[in-house]
Structure formats: C-alpha cells, structure tokens
Amino acid sequence: MTTVPYAMNFLAFKRKNLLKQNFKAQVPNQRWAADITYISTKQGWLYLAVVMDLFSRHIVGWSMSRRMGRHLVVGALRTAIAARRPDGPQIHHSDRGAQYTSQDFREELARHDIECSMSAAANCYDNAVVESFFGVLKRERVNRVSYRTRDEAGADLFEYIELFYNQKRRHGYLGNISPADFEERSDGSFETVH
What we know:
Elements: H1 6-12, E1 31-41, E2 44-53, E3 58-65, H2 70-84, E4 91-94, H3 98-101, H4 103-111, E5 115-118, H5 128-140, H6 150-165, H7 179-185
Parallel strand pairs: 1-4, 4-5
Antiparallel strand pairs: 1-2, 2-3
Helix pairs in contact: 2-4
C-alpha cells in the first residue's frame, strides 16, 4: 500500500463548502454536519466524533477513541448510516481535518453516494452548529465532572447524547422540543423557529 503525504492527499481532495453556513435542511438525512472534540480523563484524552442531522439537530452517529485518527470519523459516519439508512441526495459537512480528507473516509462517503462539503480554511463559523453542540455538551455535562477513566467518560457521554440530548433536551431552534420529538412530529413540513 502506498501512502500519500497529507499535503498531496488534501490537494487531490479539495471540496467546496456546499453549506456556506446555511445549517437548515428540509427533510431528515439531507444534510449532516460532523466534527471532533476531546474530553479530559485521568487516563488521558478521549476523542469524540459526532454526526449531526441538520434537520433536527439529532446526533445520528458518534464514535469515541483514545486516538484521533481516521478510524474515529469513519466509525461515526458508519454509525450514522446504520442508524438512519439514508436514501436520496445527501451532504456530509465537516472541517478540513486530516481525518476527513483521508482516503478511508472519502471511500466511505463514495460507497454511500454522500456528497462531501468542507468548511473554508480556518473558519470555525462554517461548522458552528456542531461547535455549538460541543459547547453545550461541555457546559452541561463534561465540565461538571472529573472522569477517572476513558470508559467512565464514554459511558457518561453515551448517556448524555442518547438518553438526554437526543431524547429530552429542548432546543429553541426546534420550537423548544427535543430532536426526537421534532422528528416524530414532523411530516416534512414542520418549520423551525429560525
């Protein structure tokens, strides 16, 4: 197997910013946004990659690891695909990190006919919706605890994402209902507040 230096790999994979800070979607699975954050534990960092459906702000896929490699984002994407089974035109938006420009990740997108969109260079506002989720996660949960182990942090993150954030946490953007309630009540014509 031949490895390609990152700079050459990235240049060969330049993608446009298809969202241009428009974080709205008309139907589920039309637009996904993704990013990575890190969580401190006494054992060291735990990295969390998430995939958010921009229709409902539902975290549809996520993956955790002690390493921040391409396997982390491929795992989150695969989890999202398995959970949602998307069909029809779809966009996956992320920053331009090496994980998202890796050949493994690009192949996974291609295998499922998902179009790639990437933020402009050095512009965190192009993925503000996921950055906002990470801010809420850290403010409401992570910064209130001191994790002894990565397993302890992982279990807590699972509980927060799957049992609280997706199912119960109200969003002003969604009319003060949870992502799960928003999707359940929506027939494709439900309007967001913004």
